[in-house]
Amino acid sequence: MDAAHLARAVELASLGPSWGPNPRVGCVIVAADGTVLGEGWHRGAGTPHAEPAALADARSRGLDVAGATAYVTLEPCAHTGRTGPCTDALTEARIGAVRYAVADPNPLAAGGGAVLRSRGIDARHEAFGPARAINRRWLGAAETGRPWVIAKWAQTLDGRTAAVDGTSFWVTGEEARAHAHGVRAEVDAILVGTGTVLTDDPSLSARPPHVDDAHQPLRAVMGLRDTFGAKVWRDENALALATRDPHEALGMLAAREVRTVVVEGGGTVTTAFLRAGLVDEVHAYIAPAILGAGTAAVGDLGIGTMGGALRGQDVTATALGVDTLVTAFFQRGPQ
Ligand SMILES: NC(=O)c1ccc[n+]([C@@H]2O[C@H](COP(=O)([O-])OP(=O)(O)OC[C@H]3O[C@@H](n4cnc5c(N)ncnc54)[C@H](OP(=O)(O)O)[C@@H]3O)[C@@H](O)[C@H]2O)c1
User: Fold this and answer.
1) Through-space distance between the first and last CA atoms of the chain, rounded to whole angstroms
2) How far apart are CA 24 and CA 1, in angstroms?
3) Where in the chain is the domain with CATH 3.40.140.10?
């Protein structure tokens, strides 16, 4: 029964934005007889957390939640951030029990379960895989204190991202490019090197098909050369990362509350992140094309033997028209 309510809470959580500094959280409040009294989810930083949203939902229906159980995808927060502590909202509403699926790794907000227990509320952590999966990137960022890094590129069958003359429009077809625009709209920032800006002058906007008001990620350009005048600087939603050090670049992004960044190349910058062990996830769009020469998707990583290959986990392969998207998660290397 708990699993069914937690599954519903995950469904609610998925209605929230995957970008922004806060996790996606859902909450269902259930009476002892199984009646659902209220549901809520977090709609992004500065808006009510899932628990107060579910309490408000119950109130708006004239339902009393005293003694009921709140099922939450993440441990209720015990701190005042942009909004008040959820532990207080639950206590004031006289909730009887709380089941949370993931312990909060954020040291500022953690400890909510213990606070609730100290107030006599039966609060328990009940691990539930889908609740972890829905915030995999956010949790990864919270656990390491640096943004989660997705390395994305479009390559030919023989691993080239650009031809000898520097052209890379287009490696893949429309469906693959549309998919990549959808991913951009899910993240906080896109990062490219100065080389890509000077060669391609990309817009780095999120233009998923059939979406008019897609979330636009921060555009970040990494490297020492001046690229001002390029399209990425068309408005304030852009950041110069005047460094060649991936750790420093991520520190600058973290200072802007970036939790997930897509590193979109070129090969030099992608290689630097891989060498530093800072890539958590790879999205490789693979076109059935062969160039034979040109820029490699990834350069030398100092790996000399097959046993040293970086191996992905939780791999997916998705057909997108004639192309294939392969995604994989990579264990964190040296930080
Ligand atoms: N198919 C694809 O998915 C895809 C995606 C992107 C780009 N591309 C293609 O890739 C090509 C550009 O690739 P690229 O490798 O030349 O460009 P890049 O990786 O975008 O930029 C390289 C530049 O970034 C700076 N930089 C930042 N961090 C660095 C580090 N750790 N080490 C060394 N340099 C660093 C350096 O310039 P400073 O002197 O300014 O520091 C360097 O020259 C273009 O042809 C583009 O069309 C293809």
Assistant:
1) 41
2) 22
3) 2-138
Task: Give CA–CA dist 281/303, Å, rounded.
Answer: 19
Domain 147-329: which CATH number of 3.60.15.10, 3.40.190.10, 1.25.40.10, 3.40.430.10: 3.40.430.10
Q: What is the pLDDT of residue 83?
A: 76
- Which of 23-27, 87-91, 108-112 is the least confident region? 108-112
Q: Where in the chain is the domain with CATH 3.40.430.10?
A: 147-329
Known binding-site residues equal 49, 77, 86, 154, 168, 170, 184, 196, 200, 204, 207, 264, 266-272
Binding positions for Zn(2+) are 49, 77, 86
How close is the Cα of 150 to the center of ligand 1, in Å? 16
> Using one digit for the tens of pLDDT, what is the confidence trace for 65-82?
999 999 999 999 998 777
- Determine the pLDDT at residue 334: 42
Q: Is the domain defined by 2-138 classed in CATH 3.40.140.10? A: yes
pLDDT at 335 over 50: no
For the chain, state the CA radius of gyration: 22
